[in-house]
Amino acid sequence: MLDILRDRRSIRKYKDVKIDEQIIDQLKEAALRSPSSRGINPWRLLFITDKDMLEVLSRAKQSGSGFLKGASLGVVVIARDEESDVWIEDCSIASIILQLTGQSLGLGSCWIQIRNRMHNDGQTSEDYIRKALDLPEGSKVECMIAFGYPDEIKEPHPKSELEYGKILES
Ligand SMILES: Cc1cc2nc3c(=O)[nH]c(=O)nc-3n(C[C@H](O)[C@H](O)[C@H](O)COP(=O)(O)O)c2cc1C
């Protein structure tokens, strides 16, 4: 696991290569094994490989989401907030588990923040996605995770640059 964390970087450029169903199944299994508060699992996960829909979703924000159109897979991380008061934490845990599992399977990925973000002056990114995917009223969309085989090389963050000052002495 530490080796995966050492190599982990956000990857936003992807090869035009399909991800096998078997790999997608492993991502699904990993996400469903995520811990959640009281085991409620308030998340819903939409796995999207349709290129037209990925392009639509890539326009959820004016910046920071465009690269989703070049991805082979996008996972939309949705929650029913009435199921848990800590759905944000639960969704975040499932999201990072998805990303790290993807990396272990040779995939690059990047988180696209949706909650608290705007599509334009009059519409939230959440509303834009709810409409695009015809999600039930009241669904919360925390983020989308873009996946694909990396088409960029990013050096790991060197250990010497880690912010050890943020580890407080007791
Ligand atoms: C909560 C969260 C929200 C993020 N939102 C975005 C985003 O909307 N668009 C994007 O391109 N990257 C996003 N990122 C990726 C960060 O920009 C990235 O993790 C950070 O710059 C550090 O780079 P690294 O992941 O390569 O170490 C997000 C990451 C997190 C954890």
TrEMBL record:
A molecular function (GO) term: oxidoreductase activity
Claim: Flavoprotein is one of the keywords in the record: yes
Annotated Nitroreductase domain residues: 5-149
Signal sequence interval, chain numbering: none
SUPFAM superfamilies in the record: FMN-dependent nitroreductase-like
Keywords: Flavoprotein, FMN, Oxidoreductase
Names of required cofactors: FMN
Top-level lineage group: Archaea
Family stated for the protein in its record: Belongs to the nitroreductase family.
Protein name (Swiss-Prot/TrEMBL): NAD(P)H-dependent dehydrogenase/reductase
Species this chain originates from: Methanothrix soehngenii
